[in-house]
Amino acid sequence: MLPEHKGDDHARFAALLSVMAKLIRAPEAERRLAEDREAFLAEAGLAAEDLDRLLAAGDKRLLLYRKLVRRGLARAIRSEIHRTAARLGAMFDAEVASFIDEEAPHTHYLRDVGFEFITWAAPRWATSTAIAPYLIELARHELSAFEVASAIGKSGGGLPLELDRAVLFDPAVRLYRYMYAVHRLCEDEDARDEPVNEPTALLAYRDAEHDTRYLELTPLAAAILERLLRGETLRAGVTFGTSDLGQPLDGAVLSSTAALLSDLEGRGVVLGAGGP
């Protein structure tokens, strides 16, 4: 009898989770509760005892749970993309509400909700005439600070740099590419300046105090570093990076690449050469 009892408990718990999810996500929840609360709650297959308890709770208490959860998610997203949210104005709350209605977070961690929201929002915003085209990149730029800050870093160095070895980077390092120079926007939430429409490459890393920093890269530096970050050897990264841009591999390129790698070693971005 014990396994059967456990199965009953599991089904009962699953039904309760289902009805709570409906209360939070369903756009029609308030209307359905007002029209026929019992039918709305019973659709989840609740046990009679649980249905009676929820019916006794009343609409106000049930909707309070809905409002608390949705507001909490909106606050979590706003805290990660606060400048984007400020520029969206009233549209931000409407977009978050649509996200919860249509998708809802899958993550167990509030810190990841903003990332899921932007993944959902990107195709919508790309075709919207009401949302400035640079805002999706501003949001991603804001989120990049959290991505780099939460990445697991690595202490210690590698081997001396060699042409036929890969370059060892701190694992927190990221390379971001944008169509707008969103990193130059004023950081004041009240600012409404617009970014220059130009391809931009940023190398993000953590400094000695573990603060996220950004280094704007030239097109050549970005092409080379992008290959090196993929694990190509130093020789291949420089050779094919210049080839990608149709630039000759001359002394000036070799000199500037050596200077860049030296600078990145000083910043803790480059740790040396990788192993065999």
Instruction: Report, as a whole number of angstroms, the end-to-end distance.
Output: 59 Å
Helix content: 55-70%
Which descriptor suits the 3D outline?
A: elongated
Largest sheet: 3 strands, antiparallel
Chain-averaged pLDDT? 91
Q: How many domains make up the coordinates? A: 2
- Helical/strand content category: mainly alpha
Provide the gyration radius in Å.
25 Å
| Proportion in β-strands | 5-15%
Order of helices and strands: HHHHHHHEEEEHHHE
The neighbouring-strand order within the major sheet is 2-3-4
Q: How many β-strand runs? A: 5
Point out poorly predicted stretches: 1-5
* Number of H/I helices: 10
Tell me what the structure shows.
The chain is mostly helical and 276 residues long. The chain is built from 10 helices and 5 strands. The protein has helices at residues 2-25, 29-42, 48-80, 82-88, 90-102, 113-126, 135-150, 219-229, 234-244, 251-267; strands at 167-169, 174-178, 200-206, 212-216, 270-273. Helix 1 (2-25) runs antiparallel to helix 2, helix 3 packs across helix 6 (113-126) and helix 8 (219-229) packs across helix 9. The longest helix is centred in the N-terminal third of the chain and has 33 residues, at 48-80. Residues 1-5 have low confidence and may be disordered.
